[in-house]
Design brief:
Blueprint lengths: L1 H4 L4 E6 L4 E6 L16 H21 L4 E5 L10 H7 L6 E9 L10 E4 L2 E2 L3 H12 L3 E2 L5 E11 L9 E6 L6 H11 L4 E4 L9 E10 L6 E10 L2 H6 L9 E2 L2 H9 L4 H11 L3
Parallel strand pairs: 2-3, 3-9, 9-10, 10-13
Antiparallel strand pairs: 1-2, 4-8, 4-12, 5-6, 5-11, 7-8, 11-12
Length: about 280
């Protein structure tokens, strides 16, 4: 199941007898069907995910699903607005969301070594100037010279009409980074269900995010991709969760993990199924 699930960034499976629905999200970016997996325009990402989530959660209602497993173990992030959208399909009450993008300035260093912007190759000085001019429009200067872009500020998010009200289990791991860390923080702060797996690889505090610039080192020719922004979330979220990196409610020893690895079994999935079948 894992091998097949990794072949696409959204993968689902219905276990009819157990009334379980499995949703694996390997990214919070939306990729068009192409060999290069090119991400589409950010403004379209939210719409695409919303349509997919609406369809999936309506399907769950029709199937009378009682237990939902969300797998973010291979999700390294993406569009920072998608975690709140996904949580609105799980929320049982309204919640607040704040998303603030920050950048120190637009004086991008060492542009002579830039060879890609958001995956686009063979860039020129005109491409770089156009890129800076385009993103500058969204920011507003602050007194300390930090540039700010407010995506949302204490926005009240209401549960979707098709919001799932059953049991939810969230699988996370060392490869769960960036926007998936933010979703896990929302999930934990509102006590929506059990978190299972390894300590997360990424922190939900001050995520690096935004447009990706790729530098090529002049001698080794090694490519280094770097984001240019930082994302801050609501103070309420930070107050509810003290940990820099979220530790799951159910975590396993190295010996347990190794044994299941040798047997080519999915430890987290098997334990969740066991919890569902034997809740006590």
């Amino acid at each position: 199941m894992n091998k097949e699930g990794l072949s696409n960034f959204v993968y689902t499976r219905h276990f009819e007898e157990e009334r379980i629905f499995y949703l694996k999200l390997n990214s919070f970016n939306w990729y068009e069907n192409s060999p290069k997996k090119v991400s589409i325009f950010p403004k379209s990402v939210y719409k695409k995910f919303n349509q997919r989530f609406a369809s999936l959660f309506e399907e769950m209602a029709e199937l009378a699903v009682e237990h939902l497993i969300i797998d973010l173990r291979f999700n390294q992030g993406g569009n920072v607005k998608i975690p709140g959208l996904l949580y609105s399909y799980l929320a049982q009450e309204a919640f607040n969301e704040s998303l603030l993008l920050k950048i120190q300035d637009f004086d991008i260093p060492h542009v002579e070594h830039l060879n890609k912007i958001e995956g686009k190759e063979n860039i020129t000085s005109k491409d770089i100037a156009h890129f800076i001019k385009k993103i500058q429009k969204e920011f507003m200067k602050k007194n300390d010279s930090t540039e700010l872009w407010t995506l949302s500020k204490n926005e009240v998010r209401n549960p979707k009409k098709s919001s799932f009200d059953g049991n939810v289990y969230l699988l996370v791991g060392g490869r769960s980074l960036s926007a998936s860390s933010y979703f896990t923080a929302l999930f934990k702060a509102h006590e929506r269900g059990m978190i299972v797996g390894e300590q997360m690889g990424g922190s939900y505090r001050s995520l690096t995010a935004g447009k990706m610039l790729t530098y090529q080192l002049p001698n080794t020719k090694i490519e280094l991709a770097t984001p240019i922004m930082v994302v801050d979330f609501s103070e309420e979220l930070y107050q509810k969760i003290d940990d820099e990196k979220i530790t799951p409610d159910l975590i396993f020893s190295d010996d347990e993990t190794y044994q299941y690895f040798l047997e080519k079994k999915d430890l987290e999935m098997e334990r969740v199924f066991q919890l569902i079948k034997e809740p006590n």
